[in-house]
Design goal:
Layout (H helix, E strand, L loop, with lengths): L1 E5 L10 H9 L3 E5 L13 H14 L4 E6 L2 H11 L4 E7 L20 E2 L17 H10 L3 E2 H4 L15 E5 L4 H9 L4 H5 L3 E5 L6 H4 L1 H14 L1
Parallel strand pairs: 1-2, 1-3, 3-4, 4-7, 7-8
Antiparallel strand pairs: 5-6
């Protein structure tokens, strides 16, 4: 089974290198994706462009696919579940939750000159970045790719109720499974409140476990694949 790895904002597909190597060692087939606007210099890329890239990877797979979305890309993984519910073995959501229909994809920070640059570390003070040392932070900042406005402000459109049949694993880095369950039960995550099969996995990391805990993250993803 292919495991599609979709990074969040500002991330090139190469951020999954450690996870991909560990998954290969466990006998799985990782497919890290570099999305339009996340490494090709195309500031005109849109959310639809990114979704089409993920869907193309799903369609190219010989069998069922596990799609993994990180942070904002949890919505991209869920959009994939909406468009290809019969092709997915499951959706893994790392450090984030899917946006509702009609909501902006990731309109979180200031857009300048058509892109949303990395805003620096102040918004991520605390558990998000506590496990990133200065060297890791410098490397992240240097590699961060500004997000095209058409991606950040793209509107999420969900149309197929069968997405709620797709098994979901929520990987909890800077928050706990108990907190995630509380948010869902309180109605803060309507899409997952309607999902029929939601499991949770804890990981001792900040917001970017593919950087700080790649082997453990790979183990969690491999277990999710094996469960399917």
């Amino acid at each position: 089974m292919d495991i599609l790895l979709v990074g969040g904002l500002w991330l090139h597909g190469s951020v999954w290198g450690g996870v991909a190597s560990a998954l290969e060692g466990l006998g799985h087939r990782p497919v890290p994706l570099t999305l339009p606007g996340q490494g090709d210099g195309d500031a005109s890329a849109t959310l639809d462009d990114q979704l089409e890239t993920v869907l193309a990877a799903v369609d190219a797979a010989p069998g069922p696919v596990l799609v993994v979305g990180h942070s904002a890309a949890c919505s991209l993984a869920w959009l994939t579940a909406d468009r290809r519910p019969d092709k997915l073995a499951g959706a893994v959501l790392i450090g984030g939750f899917p946006a509702e229909d009609g909501r902006p994809y990731a309109d979180f920070f200031e857009v300048r000159d058509g892109v949303m640059p990395f805003p620096g570390w102040e918004p991520f003070d605390g558990p998000d970045a506590a496990d990133l040392d200065e060297q890791a932070r410098s490397a992240f900042t240097a590699a961060a790719i500004p997000v095209p406005e058409g991606v950040a402000r793209g509107v999420v459109r969900l149309t197929d109720e069968r997405r709620h049949d797709v098994p979901v694993l929520v990987v909890c880095p800077e928050f706990t499974p108990a907190e995630a369950r509380e948010w869902i039960a309180a109605g803060d995550v309507p899409e997952l409140a309607r999902a029929k099969n939601v499991e949770f996995a804890d990981i001792d990391s900040g917001h970017w476990p593919m950087i700080t805990q790649p082997v453990e993250l790979a183990r969690i993803l491999a277990a999710a694949t094996d469960a399917d």
